[in-house]
Design a protein that fits this description.
single chain; alpha/beta; TIM Barrel; Rossmann fold; eight-stranded parallel beta barrel; seven-stranded mixed β-sheet; 17% strand; globular; binds alpha-D-galactopyranose
């Protein structure tokens, strides 16, 4: 990581890139010139080309047709638009699966996943790989020196539809991956706990992917976790070819940090790419914009604080919800600028011109069916002008917050497996709940990959940090010993990297640090609640927490006021605790709090972290910082008067008086003004 788009020779001024996926193969040639003219009108600076072009580039195994793409790249270049050129491998052409049906993935029931949609290939298929790499090589050789080429775009949303492949190829590759991880079968048998249910393996060839087993049973949990790790690892092959042939061209691929997409451990991918890129679509719901902020925040921290590329989002409606609504006026810019606030230096959409045919003809675009005389195109053009005015922001890194929420894909996978104390547990919901509590408190927080290091943070929340090996546990202890404040929730520290329960009492690896011990979980029935003596309620989970270290303070106890008749009576038992450790502390939350705000308020005060916004704005406005700039995001559906900030000046003509619903404004840092004054010293 750490590189940025290769710029056209001579273009040195930093800028915020603006653009979209551009699929010219869907349109007759005559339209291309109009596309470039309208792109210029809209302020487009970059287009992602060729994502789904394989069948047009290679119409038959021995036939290549790249002339049209030469023309498109030249046209874009002449129009001053840079190209993010896809390797075009995302959707194999019909001749390939016709000739080689053995590239088609297989689902957990052993059924072939048929072509007709897209991404119908086995990531581990040597046949697919051979054809794909031949295409990649051809693209790299032909276009590596093209002046429009700004970056390589590997495939598209790797793993979106094919991460869990159970084909014979996947099985072979899984065994190789396991052999590499464990070295020998004894180690694998130990890690997988195969003494259980007579699962001992005597030969590598006996190992399968975790296909669907009989009703009421469930494949080995460590096998499941390793299969998820393997699936995430198996998706990358094209980068090496590009690096070898065009070392000076940066490489990216679009992540899907959004919603409930969980298949890929992106924290383990970032070393292989030069630019972190993400696709984000808004999922309807009362907290949709906070979810956007959460995903953008995590993406920015996957990028290590460096600028990243918002590769796709939508100008208006998508086409894959049950009901697809247009975005309200102002949301197009509000959504884009919220990503920018969290570090995006490129703001791109799916797609440039709305398709008239194919599966996505009802998905919005920069240039909609209605044409250039439309509210969407006017909003796009307006945003293009705004982004041009925000050029000074380009290159500015995220300013780290004092607090962090740890994010861990293996914990997501393992905590939501079946055969756990409650299948109602939702990993992301717990992390997101804390994120919203920070936002409500007006305190900035970073969502950071759990292995990224805790240096600089003063308060760290570990929501359901379920998988916790000894090294990471030691890092958390060192953080607390160094004066840091840790907050861990229920079901954290429970299993090690092999998904083995840490014996001796829960919360396993964190037991000593937290100074508490739990012998049995007490999950709650769906909808049932427990009442705590500080007036808060919890649901989903409860625990009879015993205090082990006498120094542990009880911040809240369970009362007898629960609504689950089957749950144990925990009246009087500690529910939320805090163990002081030197100047630091380790707190434990043993239930899912309905409202985390009161507890977070106490923890923030004890940690000495104050909001950076005047009180009237806390909760209503999200503050995000990039070096030299502050972004204010209206989180709600009503306008927010920014008067409490006093005299402010914004960039690019963005609002200074009243922030419209979900609107965003960008201010330059002014030392000593209302925002900086109200922030506690670091
Ligand atoms: C994904 C894909 C795009 C398009 C959009 C539609 O992000 O990468 O090709 O299908 O979804 O929302």
């Amino acid at each position: 990581m750490s590189r940025w788009l290769r710029r056209t020779p001579g273009a040195t001024r930093p800028r915020i890139e603006f653009g979209a996926d551009y699929n010219p193969e869907q349109w007759p040639r005559e339209v291309w010139a109009e596309d470039v003219a309208l792109m210029r009108e809209a302020g487009v600076t970059v287009a992602t080309v060729g994502v789904f072009s394989w069948a047009r580039l290679q119409p038959a195994p021995e036939r290549w047709d790249l002339g049209w793409l030469d023309e498109v790249l030249d046209l874009l270049h002449d129009g001053g638009i840079a190209v993010d050129l896809a390797t075009a491998t995302a959707s194999p052409p019909p001749w390939l699966h016709h000739l080689h049906p053995e590239i088609l993935p297989v689902d957990a029931d052993g059924r072939t996943v048929w072509p007709g949609g897209r991404q119908h290939y086995r990531p581990t298929s040597p046949v697919f790989r051979r054809y794909a790499l031949e295409l990649v090589e051809r693209m790299a050789r032909r276009y590596g020196g093209h002046p429009a080429l700004a970056a390589w775009h590997v495939s598209n949303e790797l793993g979106c539809h094919n991460v869990a492949d159970h084909s014979p190829d996947a099985e072979r590759a899984f065994r190789d991956w396991l052999a590499h991880r464990y070295g020998d079968l004894d180690a694998l048998n130990r890690a997988w706990g195969t003494s259980f249910w007579s699962q001992h393996y005597g030969d590598w060839s006996e190992i399968r992917t975790p296909r669907r087993v009989g009703p009421g049973t469930f494949p080995n949990p460590t096998q499941q976790l390793d299969f998820a790790r393997f699936g995430s690892d198996a998706l990358r092959a094209e980068t090496a070819v590009l690096r070898e042939l065009t070392p000076d061209v940066p490489v990216t691929t679009n992540f899907m940090v959004m919603g409930e997409t969980s298949g890929m451990d992106y924290a383990s991918w970032t070393d292989e790419i030069d630019i972190v890129a993400n696709d984000h679509y808004v999922f309807p719901g009362p907290h949709a914009r906070d979810e956007l902020s959460f995903s953008a925040n995590l993406t920015g921290n996957l990028a290590g604080g460096a600028p990243w590329w918002l590769m796709e989002h939508s100008t208006s409606a998508v086409n894959w919800q049950p009901v697809n609504r247009a975005k309200r006026p102002g949301r197009l810019a509000g959504d884009s600028l919220t990503h920018l606030a969290h570090g995006a230096d490129a703001v791109c959409y799916f797609q440039w011109r709305q398709s008239v045919a194919g599966a996505e003809k009802f998905h919005s675009a920069m240039l909609p069916h209605a044409g250039a005389d439309s509210a969407v195109f006017r909003a796009v053009t307006g945003l293009g002008a705004t982004l041009a005015g925000l050029a000074p922001v380009a290159g500015a890194r995220r300013v780290p917050a004092r607090a962090a929420i740890l994010w861990d894909w293996p914990s997501w996978w393992a905590a939501e497996q079946p055969f756990t104390p409650s299948t109602e547990l939702r990993y992301k919901a717990e992390a997101f709940g804390w994120y919203r509590a920070f936002a409500d408190a007006g305190v900035r927080v970073d969502v950071v990959p759990a292995g990224a290091g805790l240096a600089g943070y003063e308060l760290v929340v570990a929501p359901v940090l379920h998988v916790l090996g000894p090294e990471r546990a030691a890092e958390l202890s060192a953080f607390v010993d160094g004066g840091g404040h840790l907050v861990a929730t229920y079901f954290s520290g429970i299993v090690d990297d092999d998904a083995h329960a840490v014996p001796g009492g829960y919360p396993g690896a964190l037991r000593d640090l937290l100074g508490v011990r739990v012998e049995e979980f007490a999950p709650l029935d769906p909808g049932a609640t427990v009442l705590l003596d500080d007036g808060s309620t919890g649901d989903l989970w409860s625990e009879p927490v015993q205090l082990v270290d006498p120094a542990v303070e009880v911040l809240a106890r369970y009362t007898g006021g629960g609504t689950d008749p089957g749950a144990p009576d925990l009246a009087g038992s500690p529910a939320v605790t805090r163990r002081p450790v030197g100047t630091g502390s380790a707190s434990y939350v043993s239930t899912r709090l309905a409202d985390r705000a009161p507890l977070l308020g106490r923890l923030l005060r004890r940690a000495g972290i104050a909001p950076e916004l005047p009180g009237e704005l806390c909760g209503r406005v999200e503050l995000v910082r990039r070096e030299g700039f502050r972004f204010l995001v209206n989180r709600g559906d009503t306008p927010v008067d920014l008067a409490p900030l006093g005299e402010i000046g914004s960039l690019a003509g963005l609002p200074t008086g009243v922030l419209p619903p979900h609107g965003v404004t960008v201010l330059t840092d002014v030392p000593g003004d209302a925002v900086t004054r109200s922030s506690a010293p670091r």
